[in-house]
Design goal:
- By secondary structure, the protein is mainly alpha-helical.
- 89% of the residues lie in helices and 0% in strands.
- It has a domain at 9-107.
- It is built from 2 helices and no strands.
- The longest helix is centred in the C-terminal third of the chain and has 81 residues, at 65-145.
- The protein is rod-shaped and about 120 Å long.
Length: 146
């Protein structure tokens, strides 16, 4: 039986490498979003701690106006940082979507070539089986004639 050679094997390898690169890029975008989410959580905890201290400072007893002003400034800074992180996460989400779409497209290209290879492999196998059947029929015919 003759060996099957897929003529587009090199192209298939190129497409598989491209798909793998897109997969890695998507994973990288997910990691970036996770880092931003962790930063958001850290800022949330810092703000919660700050608000708790602010409540304590504003509680019964002597009022420390300077501390309250300082707490307010830090709260504004944290709020600004949170807003920036929200904006960055929105951009990260867009990038994740873009990279996911690129991966889907690259995966589709690989699947097309894999289906083509499978069809050609099946045709090759059928051709080889017919060739062997024909050869065996000829041998059997020659044996009967002799």
């Amino acid at each position: 039986m003759g060996k099957f050679m897929f003529r587009l094997a090199t192209l298939l390898r190129v497409r598989e490498n491209d798909r793998d690169r897109h997969r890695a890029e998507l994973a990288q975008a997910h990691r970036a979003d996770e880092i931003l989410a962790q930063r958001q959580e850290q800022l949330k905890r810092r703000r919660d701690e700050l608000l708790a201290r602010c409540r304590e400072a504003a509680g019964p007893g002597q009022l420390d106006v300077e501390a309250l002003i300082g707490y307010r400034r830090r709260d504004e800074l944290i709020t600004t940082q949170q807003d920036e992180l929200r904006r960055q996460r929105q951009l990260a989400a867009l990038e994740v979507d873009r990279r996911r779409e690129a991966l889907v497209g690259a995966d589709r290209e690989v699947q097309v070539l894999e289906r083509l290879e499978e069809k050609q492999r099946d045709r090759h196998r059928e051709h080889e089986e017919r060739r062997q059947t024909k050869m065996l029929d000829e041998i059997a015919s020659n044996c009967r004639a002799a």
